[in-house]
Amino acid sequence: MQALILGDGPFGRAVADALGAHGVALRVAGRPAAGAHDPRVFAGVDVVIDASRGDSVLGNVTAAVEGGVQRFAIATTAWESDRRRVAELLRARGAAAVAASNFSPGALVFAQLVETAARLTARLPGYEPYIVEWHRHAKADRPSGTARDLARRILAVDPSRDRMSTPADGPAEAGTLEVVGVRAGTNPGRHLVGFDGPGEIIELTLTARDRGACASGVVAAVDWLLAEPRTAGLHPFEAVLDVDDRTEVRAAS
Known about the structure:
By secondary structure, the chain is an alpha/beta fold. The protein folds into two domains: 2-103 and 212-252, Rossmann fold (3-Layer(aba) Sandwich); 105-207, 2-Layer Sandwich (Dihydrodipicolinate Reductase, domain 2). It has helices spanning 10-21, 57-66, 83-93, 105-121, 145-157, 212-227, 237-241, 247-252, and strands spanning 2-6, 25-29, 47-50, 71-74, 96-99, 128-135, 163-165, 176-183, 190-197, 200-207, 233-236. The strands form two sheets. A six-stranded parallel beta sheet has the order 2-1-3-4-5-11, sandwiched between helices. A five-stranded mixed beta sheet has the order 7-8-6-9-10. β3, α2 and β4 (71-74) form a beta-alpha-beta unit.
């Protein structure tokens, strides 16, 4: 089995180490000088792991399916504006991809805990949710993909809030979810979700010690994609770990 990792940054190298230790033959490709990969680069590739940049995902998937690739793990963020087009392209070409803002198994469990807490506190008077996330100085997107996913989950179950806000927006407005991003040093990632209530605060925290957990999740996604034919289109990481009983996850698997 041949894997191709698109993206030679810190996360791409962590995925390469994890897949190599798993016995997978692989290549790593950095950003092409021409701006887009030649489909011929993907000859003989069984699975592509995209660990590049959000603005490269659509072009990468397009070139890869033209090169004959049918399996993808999309492990980058900030490509929401192209999500529909990527999903349509995969379905049209009979290809399947697992996509997640964070491939850490712990991050998935954390997100579900946050969703449950948001649903419960939304029923109580006076509880206000917020998100604070820390990452390395060089991280490009702010808020992070993980923070945006957490925000979406909270907004989906809290009818009193309709959008996310950041400090740049000015004073927090009623009905918004405050999300604060800190960029400093080499921190691989920490997310804190709080619910400030009358006389008390509930806080949930996920701290990444390194990129190993995310890389292990990509390995699990690759194994899942190769285990049997999967329905064409995008699949959530929940389908890989089978830790969610929601109907749409069962259907996606």
